[in-house]
User: What shape does this take?
Amino acid sequence: MTSAPGPAPGNPVRARSFDAAAQLYAAHRPGYPGELLDAVEELAGRPLRGSRVADVGAGTGIATALLHARGADVLAVEPGDGMAAEFRRAHPDIPIVRGDGDRLPLADAVCDFLTYAQAWHWTDPDRSVPEARRVLRPGGALALWWNDLDTTVPWIAEQDARLAAFFGQTAAPDPHPVRSVPAELAFTTRRVRWSRRIPLEAHLSNHASHSAFLLLGAAGTREFMDAERDRLSRLFPDGTVEERYVVTVSVAVV
Assistant: This one.
């Protein structure tokens, strides 16, 4: 989905919409390629292995688990009841605390990395930037990233246009509204391209897990997904969809 006007960052209704759909989110949201964490390490100038990392807005733990597998000493920070419950079910060996980026439940200067996997846009930078500075050790890194379907692929661009028309907008609803990085920090940005092959139903469920559809409700979501299933079944007759993504990652050393 491409950028479009959306609720202000930190919008509690939209942010908490995921709690009722945590299992759907965990089952169908895409992960990240290993090259993403390679880029984070290169831009930060330090390895994740052995580093103390707080993954903020961890959700169901998609990024947290990858950081843990890379060898980081990672702690998840998550505000939502449903998301935290799903995280604990899926990752019982990774610690999680309740909180958000505007009020980090962490002591001063305890982290080598703060990571926000598709979560920075839910924060108020006037609060989350000072909080990041507070909890990071000198030379620590703030890493923000977003995973987007690649609209240079024709069928994805066409689907984006249908989403825009369905929601009555000039562009499809952005699942990550207001994603700009804070200007007061010196960020370096890189883009990583990757893809995954999944069943058509999983592709549709991925879309259904985004807040625009969660707030729309079951009837409206079913209307769009039924029509989309019919279109994509003709395009992908074997029932397998190749989703191509671009991950935009920005890292600042503070």
